[in-house]
Amino acid sequence: MKDVFQKAFKLLIGNDASLEPFQVSKKRPFKELSERELIQLESKIGAKLFGPISPGSRREFFNEDPKNWIWHEEWTGSDKKRHSMTTRYEVHAEGILKVSENEP
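^ that's the sequence the OP posted. Answer follows.
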């Protein structure tokens, strides 16, 4: 009877080999990076959230602190001049406040 329970238990929980895809690496490649470098890396990832970036343009989207997100974008307009826009999103208990340049 003991063998039956052991077999049933193994069927229920599986073996360690079945857990390999879920194992978390003990290596921490980002541990050596400074806070600024981590923000820059996060910004590169965040920039891709809003779709492709036009050639000659730059976009950053990152978390400045637990309550502030920054979206910055630079591009060359049809007038051949360089333009930029920075928007800060402040997270409050009542909602999210969007603060942009040139807006009241």
